[in-house]
Design a protein that fits this description.
single chain; 160 residues; Chitinase A, domain 3; Thrombin, subunit H; 2 domains; binds zinc ion
């Protein structure tokens, strides 16, 4: 089955930067599942997946504009260390989750003191050109509930 709007796609990916350094991979776990055509994944990757079939593998280079957006200046904030979630001790360069009015957000730790930390609110992948190695594992029609929610349910998708 081919990938098109309103189908649920399961895929494995390895995310690398321009120099080929691996940043993230789904290998060794469940493939990621998403509802195609609903902006659930970054634009550049969704566009590259359009029309691909089960079993296909490919690589795509995604610019910041089609990825996580450009890096913006002036997004460094000082927050209490106890508000950082995801680890017990923090070092510069680590990624933490912070609760905001818009829900949890990933930040990059820049400086850590005893009580306060400077964190960068840019998405950790903002401003970066990304290379995705992708293998399409499964393509299926979405069920009506998935369509009404706008995302995939079940293995690799949304559990709620
Ligand atoms: Zn749902």
């Amino acid at each position: 089955m081919e990938i098109q709007k309103d189908r649920v796609v399961s895929f494995h990916y390895t995310l690398k930067d321009e120099d080929g350094k691996e940043l993230e991979t789904s290998r060794g776990g469940e493939p990621l599942a998403y509802l195609h055509g609903h902006g659930n994944i970054v634009d550049g990757l969704e566009e590259a997946l359009e029309g691909k079939s089960e079993g296909e593998s490919f690589s795509v280079t995604v610019s910041p504009e089609k990825g996580y957006g450009p890096r913006r200046e002036g997004l460094v904030q000082r927050v209490p260390v106890k508000h950082l979630q995801g680890a017990k001790t923090w070092k510069p360069g680590m990624i933490a989750a912070v609760q905001t009015d818009q829900g949890p957000r990933q930040v990059v730790v820049q400086k850590v003191g005893r009580f306060m930390a400077d964190v960068d609110l840019n998405h950790p992948m903002a401003g970066r050109t990304l290379v995705f190695d992708v293998e399409v594992m499964k393509v299926r029609e979405a069920d009506p509930e998935e369509l009404s929610h706008g995302h995939a349910h079940g293995d690799g998708g949304n559990h709620h």
